[in-house]
């Protein structure tokens, strides 16, 4: 046992324990647990104070997971498919806070599709993670809208409908950050999460997260085996916080790296693999997703990024102080205004 | 000519929707109001942008009765489609004004007929052909001014208000009014008994609509977040926020202290508002019946997770799309128990435009205090029509911020607190809101079962304890909601209970009954649910209680019968719903019919 004095802390003076949540009640081996633990690591690594994060979710297995990380962050587990609207209102309470939303493929691509697309189009500043397993776990194994054609599920039969591609939907709705990853690729999930937390507006992370109980047959596109065999990363992604920039940039070989500057001064480095992919061109992302579908690839990495667009909360000319700390005198017009109001009536 | 009738009759103006007649109608209404004459205006419009018939009724009442009347002594018709119906609708002895390009046979000799050369006068005006149809409406304003004795100066004041002082618009419209008045002076011979004369009965009043008042009230209530989705008849409430918030709620540096969001649907509108309420903002949404239906699920979550939010329901007649531009009080039972599971909601029932203002801020206070959704139920008649109303009064109490703990509070409490514990015995727990940096501040909100520490639990005892506390909180609400307004009738053995926009009709009905030597009746205007103790006392006092409502089923009677079953045998419904505001005559007859 280590003595308390030996416990490591980050620059915020917090230990990794300060970022943990309750023990997970999801199944052993669920991809969602792996994502939760990456969120803990990333927030610790980036020295984020947990009280400065807001957690949101809808309903489903994925939406339970905000209870399993960042116990010291405010959170709200809303309605099925309605995380988007709740988060939109809540983030105005104090716009200095950062938001993380956890949704699933049912929560986002079926019941919550309308709200999802409007959240995206407003460029609401939130890291929106879809823990995508192609199946309804909590209600015991029904098809979701991201399930592939031909998927055969016990009790459900064979899926005959085309799947919804969450990244394509996000792009079509003018998302400013779209990435796909695989829960089995912990390093990539971690670096994408870091980049997403530095992004100015909405960051969509569609993370294929296998359901070990209801949808993990080797040939299913949301399974561990299929994911491992078919993952085609676009690049090796590394995130460098503003503070660390100078020391780390030197480690990379010039010419093989594409640098993306984030709004907060940090940098995302995309190290070329065999393809040279430019994620700042939206048409590239559409083309890449089309190719992936044709070739049966699980394309992962940062598909699209645009740091130039103001976020939803930036687009309002709000007071400096958090809205929820305003005093009565800021909120109620002065007594003499009532005569003016009455004079404005007829 | 029979005996003169001054300031005591109704005028109905029949036009075509979208023809710009609303400006002319409201100008007449305002001019009469400026002459000190008590007036009321009801716009009866179709769910249509252009082309369908529309009617506007102005009632003048020297005695100050502002309920709708069915009878119309003067009718102005500019619409060939409704001509026959309009002609038939004039009271015997009344007068019929019509645009003389409508060539229909006139088959009545019991009224006076006044043709108006609307097209000719409009053509002679100096406005561009594009505006000619609009300006044509000013012809009947001028003709009526001359024939009834409306002061042209008050018409000019009304036009100047409408056009926000824009000289060109005021002058061109007024020019047509003047030309039409001159034409009438030279060409029409007054032979009906109806006219107007200056009074001094409106100087203590302003003229406004309930939706504007509600928005202004919310602004004085410190509203910080509003989300909404367009729907008749509620849209103008949120649109008024967009007009007045920038004028009254920006800092000296021009920074906003508020956010208004037009949502993608009502599901999202209430979701946003509840999110903001959870975040510690004074938050609201506004809608009508169909929107309320969509908001049901989040409203239930707001009740159970205990999130303050205000929901305005400007009611229209339903079910389904119903008649979207007609009024009713048909959502009461829906809202009372909105959403699944055990619960009753807190409802405020404003009865006047001034009260829309007052409940605009009170509802936000009450929601903050109770940590619960608070519904305010107005209707199309109150929300969209122009009413003479007492001026808005500055709130007489500071903002109620509720039991919110900040860093300093948690410091004092050494971080020991429980989100859902009844610490004060009133059923209302303490809460913290995001941004609080104390390490013990955060909690995880949810619609699922939770214990006093806001932790997920499926434990039966925790569930029942929590539900019992929520019921206790509702009992606390009973002591906090606005009390009823009671007018005891001396020697009365009968009571009447009404709420909302029906008050003027009930008041007038009681005056009519009194005048006719009918039964003595006491009147209680209900202003909120749950029922306060005063309501129970009132009910106990009288042998029979008539509950007057603008709906088919007697929804308040249903609710009252369920919460006061021992009193239910006393209750008699006087309910009626055809899309129009109730009339005094109907209320009077509905009571008399059951008193036989």
Short note summarizing the structure:
Chain A is an alpha/beta fold. Chain A is 29% helix and 21% strand.
Write the layout of secondary structure elements.
The complex is a heterodimer of chains A (346) and B (596).
Chain A: H1 31-45, E1 53-57, H2 61-64, E2 74-77, H3 83-90, E3 98-104, H4 105-109, H5 113-121, E4 126-132, E5 135-136, E6 142-143, E7 152-153, E8 157-158, H6 166-172, E9 177-182, H7 186-198, E10 203-208, H8 224-230, E11 231-233, E12 235-240, H9 245-249, E13 257-261, E14 267-272, H10 282-295, E15 298-305, H11 328-331, H12 337-344
Parallel strand pairs in A: 1-2, 1-3, 3-4, 4-10, 9-10, 11-15
Antiparallel strand pairs in A: 5-6, 7-8, 9-15, 12-14, 13-14
Helix pairs in contact in A: 1-7, 3-5
Chain B: E1 5-6, E2 8-16, H1 21-34, E3 39-44, E4 53-61, E5 72-77, H2 83-88, E6 90-99, E7 112-116, H3 118-124, H4 129-148, H5 152-162, H6 167-187, E8 194-195, E9 206-208, H7 210-220, E10 225-228, H8 235-248, E11 259-262, H9 266-278, E12 283-287, H10 289-305, E13 309-315, H11 332-336, E14 346-348, H12 353-370, E15 373-379, H13 380-384, E16 387-389, H14 407-412, E17 444-446, H15 460-480, E18 485-487, E19 494-499, H16 503-515, E20 521-526, E21 528-529, H17 533-541, E22 544-549, H18 555-563, E23 571-575, H19 584-595
Parallel strand pairs in B: 1-8, 2-5, 5-6, 6-7, 10-11, 10-12, 12-13, 13-15, 14-15, 19-20, 19-22, 22-23
Antiparallel strand pairs in B: 2-4, 3-4, 9-16, 14-21, 18-20
Helix pairs in contact in B: 1-4, 1-5, 3-4, 4-6, 5-6, 7-8, 7-12, 9-10, 16-19
Descriptive notes:
The complex is a heterodimer of chains A (346) and B (596). Chain A is an alpha/beta fold. Chain A has a single domain, classed as Rossmann fold (3-Layer(aba) Sandwich), CATH 3.40.50.970. In chain A, 29% of the residues lie in helices and 21% in strands. Chain A is built from twelve helices and 15 strands. In chain A, strands 2-1-3-4-10-9-15-11 form an eight-stranded mixed sheet, with helices on both faces. In chain A, strands 12-14-13 form a three-stranded antiparallel sheet. Chain B is an alpha/beta fold and 596 residues long. Chain B is 39% helix and 19% strand. In chain B, strand 12, helix 10 and strand 13 (309-315) form a beta-alpha-beta unit. The radius of gyration of chain B is 26 Å and the shape is globular. Classes of the chains: A alpha/beta (346), B alpha/beta (596). At the A-B interface, strand 2, helix 3, helix 5, helix 11 and helix 12 of A face helix 1, strand 9, helix 7, helix 9 and helix 10 of B.
